Amino acid sequence: MFDKRLLRLAPGIGRLVAGKVLMLWLTLLSNIAFAVTLVSMLGDLLNAVDGKGPIPLSCRVDHVNGGCVAFDRSDLLPELPQFMTWTPARIGAYAVAFAVILLVRYLATKGANHLGFLASERVKLALRTRLYRKMLTLGPDYSSKVRTADVVQLAGEGVEQVQTFFELFLPQLFYSVLAPITLFVVVLPISVPAAVTLLVCAPLIVLIVGAVAMSAARVFKKYWGKYTDLGSEFLDDLQGLETLKIFDADQRAHDRMNRRAEEFRVMTMKVLQIQLRSLTAMDLVAYGGTAAGIIVAVTQYLHADTSMLSLAGCMLIVLLSADFFIPLRQLGSYFHVAMNGMTSTKKIFAVLDIPESGRIGDVEQAHAPSIDDAEIVFSHVGYRYSQTGNDSAGKDATADTEGNVDGTGDGSKADSPRDALHDVSFTVLPHTLTAVVGVSGSGKSTAAGILAGRLTGYEGSVSFRHAASAPVEPHGTADSIATVELRDCARDFLLGEVTIVSASSHLFHATIRENLLMARPDAADAELWDALDRAHIADWVREQPQGLDLMIEEGAANLSGGQKQRLALARGLLHDSAVYVFDEATSNVDAESESLILQAIHALAETKTVLMITHRMANAVEADRVVVFDHGTVVETGAHDELMAIDGRYAELFRTQNAVESFGDDLGSRTVEILPLRSDASGTTDGTTDGANGTDGTEPATPEAPSSSTFALIRRLLGVARPLTRFMVCATVFGTIGHLAATFLPVFGMFALLAVAGHPVWGMGLPAAVAGIVICAVLRGIMRYTEQYMNHNVAFRLLALFRDRAFAALRRLAPAKLTGRGKGDLIALITTDVELLEIFFAHTISPVSIAVITSLTFAVVLAALNPWMALVLLGAHLVVGVLVPKLFAGSVSGIGPDIRRRSAALDDYVLDGMRGIDETIRFARGSRRVEEIARRTRELTSVRSKLSDVNGRFAGIGGLLVQLFTMLAATVAILCAVPEPMSVPESLASVVLIASSFGPTLALSALPANLTQTFAAARRLFALMDETPAVDERGTKNAAYAGMSLDHVVFSYDGHRGGSGEGRDGRDGHASRVLDDVSLKVPRTGVLGIQGPSGTGKSTLLKLLMRYWDPDSGRVVVEDSGRETRVGGIADSAVSQRIDLRDLDAHHRRRMQTMMSQETYLFDGSIRENLLVADPQADDDRLRAALERASVAQFVDSLPQGIDTPVGELGDRLSEGERQRIGLARVFLRDADLVLFDEPTSRLDALNEAIILRSIADLAGRRDPDGRQGPAVVMVSHRRSAMRIVDRLVEVR
pLDDT tens digit string along 887-908? Predict the structure, then answer.
């Protein structure tokens, strides 16, 4: 039924589970002892009404005739007061007995809760840490084997699902076997037929559970698959929400997500139906078995002359018969959540079982020599990306990954793999700078990935050879002492000797100091500043108020591209290894910064061995040696001058570069406009100011809801559920009938016994009482199904509605308000938090109504039996159902929000770790990362422990109060027998009714433990839905584009913490303005170039034009040409006008303009699907034309599946350049009037840059068949060469 490895995950798990089973068994024994003691306490009353029992050996004095007259059975009840003798000793004995029983029950209940919690938390910690260790072992290529969102969900919600399995299901499984046997042993001496009947029925429930487990396993697997698919698709859409909004495709994504949510709801209902059918069958068996046991006992009592069964014995059977089946019924109710846990653990173990063969470090080398002075020799090296998925993701996912050189693509669905490298031979001399050049997809980064240990399974030889050793022959026959083969190097050795800094190096959501210390944990501040100085980013860091303690937001959202890259460079320099590999390390920086960084790299090469992979041919001129890649092999090596003299491939690429530099008009003949942008030091970047989203590195960025009262929150939740009121009313009606049936079944049993004893209650005879028993047993099973189906039908419909509203809120907030916000937290919000609402909608609304209605019904019935008992019941239910939950809720207030906050932060941390797993491995910080996950998990466990302790305490108190009030009812029955002995039958029935009546009310007393997290989740969701977006997109106007302009714009990211409203009041936004009184005119046609250093606000200009934000003061205006436009179907007059961007219809604006940002986002689908984001109606001819204009058609044609080739998660089956070109094709496909480019050629080689620039120039200069001029283009770039095509150049300062 479950993987036995679960019990071996952590020490002591088996003992903890066994301990909980023991505690549950002690609870059962205390219940048995209580029932026996209670029946004994009522012994006088039972003997008095027992028409089948023995007559007391005593007589009654006849005061008229004298003498002593013997009693008969009819005299016992009226004379009952004479027989009751409650001496202090007897009262004390019962008091002590009950005190001991109650104490044992309380301690056993609390102990069972605690031991189950410890077992589940130990397993969760072990699974979470093992899962991340597995990701570390798999390395950066993990995404080809398992999706990132799946890992995050498995490490979060998937691991949490294990809690129910270990805390509830597994102990209950063993206890369910032990309990019936124990009760059989107890009942057997009282009534053998009843004991046998009860025992025979019990295994039927086990058979039902087993049958359901077999039939449900496949459905649960599909259910969990749908759940993780929903999370994965949501993460993909969430990360690409900016792209979706740019292309006005967010509504389509929203509709698609709603379809997925509906599919998940349908699958959930299928799972629910399986569960409910099993519960119905179990209830029919359980209550049918209870009824059968009671009927057998009644029948045996009817023939008491031969059976010797007393009324007291029968009452004990009535009280214990339900306990026979409660453990098994509870096992069934835990089953569906346990199946979730078992399914998620199967998925976790499937990840843990992924083969790891071929990873670096498989062969240990205890005494590897230093490679400080060693040559790096590639000799006849070949490499192909596997199509099996085992090593297909071994490519460098963060650089220009040449696994796609011939179109195989990492992990593509090719029938056979193709060579990424073949017969590659070259040597890197120590303490020199070797430049590696070539077009995108030529194999450069694949070679770097092999050297860095990212890729294994290469052919040929890659070795570190000291200069004194003999030359290496083609197959590596060198001196074995002085030569080290890379594949033989231990992981730690290689990680310490080789550092790689790529164009997409990950910066963690932590401080600058913490990010730098990853490279060298023992570095002093002086060393950190030295590395920052060498990377030419120290001045910017010094300008920040927090300095080294500046918090970097998730995805480095508060840094510009150049700042991010220079911080990654500083971290790499701090690592101080023998070999450095710079893979496009200057692709996102301005010309001045590029020059400074190149100086740092050249200085580094004086003492280190440096490989510099670059698309910029000019960067190779000063290199000591140049290696030229072409189609997966090395075609030329030598110094720049030598290669130019050869006039081969290198010379061709270099001349192309020069052609790009001279492409277009001479900048010297063009007027350069100077646009001053005030950008004060206080945290201002191209992105946002630091901390703009209020993150502190620990708390998730999702805002907390305003502290509304719980009553107001409940009222709002009920308001959402109001349209489904009819279903909730039906659930309440069916549930009430079911619970009344469950309670009155033993009451009818008592009625039957009293009828046989000759004291029928309300004149009810034996046949009527037996019929009542049977009807109650059947009704309970049927009503349970209908109640639960109605409740969950309501709940799952509402969960889908909440997902819809949550995604709608994210669409409103994107992209500005989601910048830097934790994606792991948002995944938890739309999956785990939404699922937690089920507790309120399915397990709170109708149960509260049912508890109230059933309590009042019981009170009415008791008032007819014994009014004093009605008062006891009302008092008991008020205490158990109102007072206890109120006290419980007070004890757990604040715990639920803390759990949700820490859980979300843990999800964020795991996701951040997955995104930066390459850096974690590279800097040997995996163990530290695992320790941090363990620490955060333990902190979460500590908070959960508080909830568990309170839950255990109140569960014990609830059980204790039920028995105390049952004792009180028995005491009232005894007291009422003194003045009114003839009321004893009604009093006995009342005691049974009160003892059986607490089911619905006890459910209320347990609600606070569950609702504390549910209410916290609801507050988080409502906070998201209520958050004010950065811009209010309620404009209604259309415009015929004739240009745009910024008029005296003032903008500060600090000024937008409170939302878009601040943009209209003209506040100046503290001192850290990004733009200060800026005016800029965007033309109707032609190319406008914007150039300037990193971090000066260039990207902010584009974001204001795209209306990510509104200015603090001033206006962003669209020039309307005056052509006739239509708004809402009504024609406007053709009047030329200037329209405030805020007044423009959002959908019209997105059709009018489009943008390609610095980071091209590709969705986890095919190339075709990614292109259709821009225009879902585009046919193959249009797609082909867009690919050709982006210089990527030839590459797509080379792929085995062509345009239908999957691009992988985050597009990581493609190189950086290939991703960028497909992004450009997507922009070209959009028929917009204004196209904005943010660094469109930053990661392209010279040849492709030339082609792309010509395409952009053609785009701006073309005319369509109707004679309409091409769109206006605004291009931001730090590359001077990119500015050659502009008609007008603006330099920002």
Answer: 998 888 888 888 888 888 888 8
460: left (phi over 0), alpha (psi -120 to 50) or beta: left
Rounded CA-CA distance 1061/1059 in Å is 6
Pairwise CA distance, residues 1034 & 1142, whole Å: 8
Per-residue pLDDT at 52: 64
- Separation of alpha carbons 926 and 1228, rounded Å: 42
| Residue 527, phi then psi, degrees to nearest 5 | -70, -35
Q: What is the CATH number of the domain that holds 1233?
A: 3.40.50.300
3-state secondary structure of 855: helix
DSSP 569-633: HHHHHHH--SEEEEESTTTTS-HHHHHHHHHHHHHHTTTSEEEEE-S-GGGGTT-SEEEEEETTE
- Say how many CA atoms lie within 13 Å of 1280 toward its Cβ: 16
Q: Helix %, strand %, coil % for the chain, to 5? A: 60, 10, 30
Rounded CA gap, 54 and 51, in Å? Answer: 9
3 state SS of 1122: coil
Longest dimension (CA), the chain: 147
- Rounded CA gap, 425 and 440, in Å? 19
Residues 774 and 889 in one domain: yes
CA gap 76, 91 in Å, rounded: 23
Give the integer Cα–Cα distance in Å for 1013 and 901.
Answer: 10
DSSP state of 1175: -
Measured between alpha carbons, how far is 679 from 1071 in angstroms, rounded to an integer? Answer: 9
Residue 694 within any structural domain of the chain: no
The residue ranges of DSSP E strands in 661-788, in sequence order, are: 672-675
pLDDT score, position 185: 93
Higher pLDDT, 162 or 1181: 1181
| Same domain, yes or no: 204 and 342 | yes
The answer to whether 257 and 808 have CB atoms below 8 angstroms apart is: no
Phi and psi (nearest 5°) for 133? Answer: -60, -35
Per-residue pLDDT, averaged over 592-616, amounts to 84
491 and 344 within one domain = no
Considering only residues 472 and 939, tell me which one the structure prediction assigns the higher pLDDT: 939
Whole-number Å distance between alpha carbons of 754 and 48: 11
Among residues 394, 15, 350, 349, the alpha carbon closest in space to that of 171 is found at 15
> Distance (Å, rounded) from C-alpha 176 to C-alpha 688?
59
DSSP calls for 175-205 = HHHHHHHHHHHHHTTT-HHHHHHHHHHHHHH
Angle at 519 between CA 517 and CA 521, to 5 degrees: 45
Range of the structural domain that residue 781 is part of? 4-352+706-1026
CA distance 870 to 1143: 68
Query: What is the token pair recorded at 386?
Result: 């596997």
Residue 130: which H helix or E strand, with range?
Answer: helix 88-138
Helices (H), 240-249: 241-246
Q: Using CA atoms in the order 1031, 1033, 1038, 1044, what is the torsion angle rounded to 10 degrees?
A: 10
> What is the pLDDT, as a whole number, of residue 671?
64
Q: How many domains does the chain have?
A: 3
- Residues 66, 8, single domain; the answer is yes
Lowest mean pLDDT among 244-258, 423-437, 847-861, 1093-1107: 1093-1107
**117, 853, 1028 from 717: Cα distances, Å:** 30, 22, 20
**In whole angstroms, what is the distance from residue 762 CA to residue 505 CA?**
83
Measure the CA–CA gap between 618 and 934, rounded to whole angstroms. Answer: 48
Contact present, 69 and 777 (Cβ < 8 Å): no
- Please name the amino acid found at residue 1170: N
Q: Is the pLDDT of residue 33 over 90?
A: yes
Is pLDDT at 65 greater than 70 in this prediction? no
Predicted confidence (pLDDT) per residue in 1202-1242, tens digit = 899 888 777 777 777 788 889 889 998 988 999 999 888 77
Q: Is the pLDDT confidence value at 581 over 50?
A: yes
803 and 945 fall within a common domain: yes
Count CB atoms within 10 A of the CB of residue 217: 15
Amino acid at 131: L
Taken as a whole, the chain contains a residue count of 1293
